[in-house]
Amino acid sequence: MTSRAFQATRIACAVAALGVSLSAHAQYRQARSVCVDASAVNTMAMVEDRDGTRNADLGCIRALSDNRAAVLLPSALEEIDRVPTDESLRRHAWGFLDGNGKLAVNPQFEAVGDFHHGLAAVRWKGKWGYIDAKGKMAVPPRYSSASDFVEAGLAVVTLDGQYQVIDRSGKAVGDALDASVQSVHLGEGKPAQAAITYREEYRSNTGERRYATDDIRILSSYGSDLFIAADARGRYGLLDSDWNWRVKPQYLDISRRSKDTLALAMGEDEVALIDTAGNVIGQGKDYRRIIKVGEAFWSAQLPRGGYALLDAAGQPLGTLTDAEAQSTVLHGDTLVYTTGDTLKAYVPGRAEPVTLGTGMTAAENEGNYVLFRDPAGRVAGLLTPKGTWLHGDTAPPWLAQVSRLALRQGKLWLSGDDGELFNALDAEGRAILQPEALAAAQGSQLRDMPLDVPGGPLGLLGQGYCQCGDSSAGLLLADGSVATDKTWTAVLPLDGAEDEYAPKDEAGDTPAADQLRYAAQTEDGMQLLDARGKPMDLPLQQHIGAFRHGYALIYAKGEARLIDRAGKTYALPDYFEAEVVAPGLVRYLKTAAEGDPWGLYDFIAGKEVSAPAFQFIGVFQKGQAVAALGADKVGVIDQQGKWVVPPSHHGATRVNDKLWLVSQAGWKGEDYQRPQAVINTSGRALTTFQSGIDVSRTDDGAYLAYSQKQRWMIAPDASDALDVQDASYTPMGNWMSIRRADRYGYLDGAGRWQIAPGPVAGTPFQGKPARALLSDDEGARIIDEHGKTVATLPAGEWSWPTGSPWLVRRDQQQGQHITHYADLTGKTRMTLAGFGSGFSEGRAVMTLPNGTERAVNDKAVADGPVFEHLGLRRDGLALARVGGLLGYADGQGKLAIAPVYQYATPFSGQRAVVSTRDMSMILDQQGAMVARVGMECGIRTLYGAYNQRLWPLSMPQRCQR
User: Fold this and answer.
1) Contact criterion met (CB below 8 Å) for 757 and 202
2) Residues 825-836: pLDDT tens digits?
3) Rounded distance, CA 518 to CA 877, Å?
4) Are strands 624-628 and 329-331 parallel, antiparallel or unpaired?
5) Low-confidence ranges of the chain (pLDDT < 50)
6) Distance from the CA of 177 to the CA of which of 40, 232, 433, 897 falls in 20 to 30 A?
7) Rg, Å, the chain Cα set
8) Burial of 571 (0-12, 13-18, 19+ CB in 10 A)
C-alpha cells in the first residue's frame, strides 16, 4: 500500500524535476485557494469526462481544446494594485493560453467556454458572444447564453428568452424554435447531432396554448377543477381552471398525500389546511405545525403551547396540553390519551372525547374495537368504533372472561380461553347472536363468508372437529338467528367462490343479500338454500355448482342442468362438459376427445348458437369474449359466435368495454417484443402494431395508447384515435397538460433537419464516409448522412465510442463479461473475454475482475502492466492511475510520466493539462512543464517553462514589499 508520505515524496520529486523549488511548492500547499479539491471531486470523473458546466473548476488551467486552454488570471482591464491579494480571485478574468503556455488571449472576460472549431463563447458585460483564436470578437456579445460551436458550424444561443441556432457569422439559421422548446443540444459530426427537450404545454379546450414558465408552474391537479401551482418566487397557491388564483401564492409548500382529502399548506408564520373547493381551514389560528394522525384526525400545534385536535375535515374537536399530546396512542382510528390519571379517547364521528376511567391500558385492537385491561390483566372495558364504552354495569357479564377477539363481517366475535364463543358485537356495542344461534355455534367450526355483503350472513357453521356432539352445519344470519338442520353435514356458499374462470356477474356487482344462495350437503344429496338458509323448491342434487352470471350447474340422475337464483331449471344437451360464460350461455365440449372444439349453446332458448369450432372460448364481458381457432388465430367473438375482431392475432386482452389490445401473429422474435395494437369493438385498428404498446385511462374518460415511438389519444367512445406522436396528455379541468418527449435528429450546415427527429438518439457521425449508429425497436444499424441504413447489426446492445474505428457490443456468457468489436459492416474483428473499452491507437482497455485495468492489443492479448485505472491512448500516451494519483503510460505500458497528479487530461496536440492540489501545469509528451498556474501572494500567477513570470506582468506593490 502506498503511504501518504511516499506520495508526498513522489510529488515533491516531480515538482523539483520541473524546476519549481520545494519552498515555492510549500507556499502553494499552504494557500487557501486550491486548483483541485480532492475531497470534492471524483478522480475518475475528472479523468474521463469534461464537466458540462461552464467554468467548472477542474484545475487552475482548463483542458486544452483547439490548442487553447481557458485560464483565470488577474484581469488585464484592472490596475494590478487594485487586484485583492486575499486569494478571493476578485478582479480576475478569463483568458486563454496556447499549447505552449503563452497567453493567446489576455484575461478580460467574465466567463468563457472552450474553443471548438476556431471559436469560443465568451461573456462580456453580461452578454455572450464568440471570439476567434486571436481574441477578436467574431460574433458580437448579445445573447443570454451560448453553447460551443460544433463541427457543422452551428451553435445554440438564447435571445429574448428563445433558443436560436446560429452559424459562424451569428446569423440565425434553420427552422425557428418556438416557446415550447426548453433546451437544444448540438453534438459533433456532420450532419450535427441534435437533441431537443420541450416545455410542458397547457392547451385549453378552445385551442389556447400556454407554456410552463418561471411565473407559473402547475404541479398537480387538486379536486375537480383546481391546481396546485407555484409562482416565480416559488410561493405555492391554488389555481382554478381559468388560471386565476383561487388561493393566492403565499405558502412555502402545498402538498397532499394520495389518500388525504385535505392539502397541507405551509406558510412562513402558520400552517393551514385547504379542501378541494379551495377553502383554507385554520387560517389566522397561527397553527405552527399540522400532521395527520392516522386516517381520521389532524393535530395542529398551537402558538402558545398545546395542540388542537381536528377531525378528518379539519374541524376542531378539542385541545390537548403538551402532556396530553405526548401521551396519545393511536389504536386503529381511535386516539387514546391521558389527562391527569384519567384515560380518554377520541373516536371518529364523535365531537366529544369518551371518558374511560383510571387504572387501565389499551391491550388489543381489532377493527377499531379496543379492549382495555387493568394492571392485573383483567378486562376493564371495550370501546366500539361508534364510541360506545362497555364497562362495569354497561358491559355484558361475560365480557370479563373474554380472551380472544376476531373480526368477521365487520362484527367483533368474542371468545374465552377454551374457545367458548360468548357473542358478537356490532359497532354500537349491541350483542347480535340470539341464544339459539349462540348455542348452535358452540363446538362448531365457524368459517368466514367469501363475500362481505351488507345484510348477508355473518358466518358458516360446520360440524366440530371431533364430530362428537350435536353440532351441525348452518348459517349465522345477519339478525343473529341461525339456519340449521340436523341432516346438514356442510353448508357451501354458491357466490364468491374463487376459481380460474370466475369473473363477477355481468353487472359487475356483488349480488344483493337476498339474492345469495347456498347448498346444504346431506347424506342423500345437496339441497339448494335461499338467502336465509331455507330450502328451495328443488329436489336433492348430486352436485350444485357455484353461480356464474346468475346461473349454476346442477347434476342429478345422470343429467346435467342449469338453475337460476329462483331455482328454475334449464335443460342441457348431453355434453361432456359445459360452463356458463354469459347470462343464458354456456361453452361446451361434446366429447372428452383431445382437441375436441368448443361450441356455444343458449340454454334459455334451448338452441345451439355456434357449432363446435373453437379451440378456446373465454368468459364473456359486455357481450364479447376472446376466442381462438388455433395458434396465431385469436380474435374476439360476440354471444352469437360472430367475429368482432378477426381471428388473425396471437392473443387478445380486454382493455374496457370498447377496446382490445391484440398481439401480432407470426412474430419470430422474443415474445416480450411482440408487436401489439389497439382495436375497438367494431374491429377497427386504432393504432399501428408496435412493440411495447400499453394503454392507460385519463381522468376525462379518454384512453391513451403509447409505445416508445408514438402516442395516441383514443376518444372516450373508442371510435377514433389521434396520433399525438410522443407526447403524454393529462386532463386538467378545461385544460390539457402536454408533455412532449425528447426528440433526436441531425441538422445540416444550414440548421435544417437532414435526418428527421425521432424518439431515439443515435451516435454522432464520424469517419469517412460519415456514419452513425442508431438502435431502436427495429434493432441496431449503421446509417449514412441521409438516414439510410447501410448495415444491419446482430442483436445486442451496441455502442460506438467517439474516435474508435470499431463498434462495441457487450454481453454476458455464463456470468462472464464478453466484449465484441466489429467493423461498420457488423463483421466481428475481435472478441475479448472481459469488459472492454473502445478502441484507440491500436489498443483497448480491459477491466479485470478485481476492478484494475490493463491494455489489450488488436489480437485481444493483454499488453503491459496492470493499473488502478488506464485510459485510452491519445498521442501515444494513456492516462494511468497508481496509488490514487495520475500519470501517463506509453505504448508498451511503461510509465512515461510519473503518477503524481490529482487531475489530468488526455493528451491533445502533444500537450496535456495536469494538476496537483495547488498548481496546474501544461506538459509536453516528455513530461516537461510548458507552463504553470498557481497562487502567489494571494493572486493567480502564470509562469513559463523556465519559471519566468508571464502574467501578471508586474506584481502588486504590497507583494514586492
Assistant:
1) no
2) 889 999 999 899
3) 85
4) unpaired
5) 1-32, 41-57, 500-508
6) 232
7) 40
8) exposed
